[in-house]
Structure formats: C-alpha cells, structure tokens
C-alpha cells in the first residue's frame, strides 16, 4: 500500500467531493465528506450504524486500537447523516451496500473499503495527488493543526500517543517548521 497525503488546499478538498459524486456516486462523496469531519480510519467509518449515533454524538469502538471514539458531530456531518437516514430509512449502516445483486440477498453490510479506495485513487490520479482512504483523516488533522498550531489537540483528535508520529502523519515537514520560523517575526 502506497503512502497517501493530506489534502492541504481547501478548494481541492471540495473538488474531490464533487469528482467523487460525478465519477462514482453520491454515497462515495458522502464517505469523503463525513470522513473529513470524523477523522476515523476507513474500516471504522464504514462500520458506523445509525444506532451508534445519539443526538449529536457518535460513539464507537475503534477496530485497530480498541479505543472508544466519542465524537461530537458537527452540523455538516449531522446534515449528511440525516439526509442519508431519510433517503434510506431501512438501512442499518450509514454507508450500507445496496446496489449490487449480492447485497439484496445478504444481511446488511457496509460498502467495501476496496470500492472506496479505488474511487479515491482514481480521483487522486486525475488530480495528480496521492489520495487514499487515509487522506480524509490526515486532511482533518492537517487543517486542525494549521488552524490551531496545537499538536496536542491534533493528537487527541486522532487518538495518537506521540507528537512525532502525528506531525509525520499529517505531513508537517521540517520545511513547514522552517517556514513558520521565517514568517513569524516578533
């Protein structure tokens, strides 16, 4: 699996959502938008059930770490989730598979991470970006760091235990740190 990047330009973030909807589906675009707002790993994101949400909070146990993620949903995420629930009131999962014949005769399950990965990679190729499912999480972390310069907050949001891991993860390089020193004169 190749390394993917955070999307550092907000216009590109919006463009990716549009291209995912045009080239693939509204559902894949919704994965992108909700993924940006929740900063979860793709396996956890796709496994969200409507019952995991109470009022404006999502509470799930992360598959990789076993840690509990207790996330306050922002208005954009709530709006998208409510729209999906209204369109598909019988669905169990937010991103439930329903389009192929196999889904009709099986127990409810989410869309596959392979499908989402392929969609993201194709749009990334079109935009000449290393785009993958982890890009959503990295992008959220990167923009939170740019807005706050508080690595502790980013670590907590991503549920990381090391500053170095978090900085590398969100794509903050020595060049970025050097630029901050040059641009900020006191």
From TrEMBL:
CDD domains the record matches: INT_C_like_3 (cd01192)
GO biological process entries: DNA integration; DNA recombination
Coiled-coil annotated spans: none
Swiss-Prot/TrEMBL keywords: DNA integration, DNA recombination
An example molecular function term from Gene Ontology annotations: DNA binding
Every Tyr recombinase domain range: 2-182
Name of the protein this chain belongs to: Site-specific integrase
